[in-house]
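Complex 403.
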Amino acid sequence: MEKDFTNPFRPGAGHKPPYLAGRVEEKEEFKNLLKQEVVLNNLILTGLRGVGKTVLLDSFKSIAQESGWMWAGTDCSESASINEDTIALRLLTDIALITSNIVIHTEKIKEIGFTKDIREEKTYLSFSFLRQYYNAVPGLPIDKLKAVSMFVWDSIKSIDGVEGIVFAYDEAQTLSDHADDRQYPLSILLDLFQYLQRNGVKFVLVLTGLPTLLTKLVETRTYSERLFHVLTLRQLNDQESRDAILKPIADARCKTKFNDESVKIIIQQSGGYPYFIQFICREVYDVFEQKAAKKQKLSVPIDAIIQKLDNDFFAGRWSRATEREQQVLIMLAEANKTTFTIQDTLELSNKSRFKKFSRSQIGQLFNSLIERGLVYKDKRGSYSFAVPLLNQYIVRTQNTQPY
Ligand SMILES: Nc1ncnc2c1ncn2[C@@H]1O[C@H](COP(=O)(O)OP(=O)(O)O)[C@@H](O)[C@H]1O
Ligand SMILES: [Mg+2]
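Predicted structure with magnesium ion bound:
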């Protein structure tokens, strides 16, 4: 019997969408990266939360594997406390996961007594082998890592069909040096790849993270600017949003249909942000399915859906901010500012209903808002909301009194 068609939409961090809309140019860029004979370029994928970095990175994996690249890497979201030893361990683990069935040496051993029997003992490029190799190299973690990586590359480069290895790290903005503890894991990562690529090793680094990522890398190592090509993911355009909404239900087994009117509402309310598209579509699908069963007219209960989105997505993030931080954001949202400077904010403060903010207070509040992931600072020193549509949430949930 055919399986019932169920709600295909998948709101949730890293959940594979039923249809990955748009992102054609980004995939092209990634393919170009894999065409490099000598690796000069690495990739950063940035964008706001929920814009689709993780799922796009996932889709790169099969592109890489189709053209002979091995794929290593992980999610760094828990990496705040990573030090030099743990980053080394991380890299060795990631490499071993893809190389552990590669034989680098076979020894023929004659069994004593049974002159005809020859036993083969194979050495694999396994984690324990890499670990031993690492430990045996004298020097600092970076020296050890360079030596192990060169050895790995020498062992795999002539294997038929192997082009190189892509190292993909999601949520890389969490990686940091800790000068206080004399721990420099991020520097090690950058130095390692720069060294290997200069020596002809085809290891490519792909990092994803919030828009602060490049700034952070450049602060750590100025050459990062040349090392990485940056792709900024934005919201989907109308046609791509339409695809994200309609392709998943264009299945013959799917009885639930979205009319034009509802598609328009979904595009408008989601602002083309993939997470919001999945979220709203999932709700609409459920409602339409029930209404259709009762033969009721299909209309999108957008207010109720937005209310649910506010509770599920925004409220928790908003409540992390202190009262004064919230007041700054309310001023900016009400003035319809999505990108702003300290000066803009100071001027708004002078005519605001809230207690006045000084320039240095605003600077401090922005720093803590950055820490909370609600605001980010770009290369030019302007600030923006780091959560998509947060400004609209603020406006609709605050009582907007005139100043
Ligand atoms: N191109 C896309 N088309 C349709 N849905 C998408 C697309 N990109 C992301 N999504 C959906 O949006 C949500 C957020 O994606 P995710 O990759 O976790 O974002 P990020 O890593 O940028 O925070 C997920 O539910 C995912 O299925
Ligand atoms: Mg993600």
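Residues 10-15, 17, 20-23, 47, 49-55, 244, 274-275, 278 surround adenosine-5'-diphosphate (ligand 1) (CB under 6 Å).
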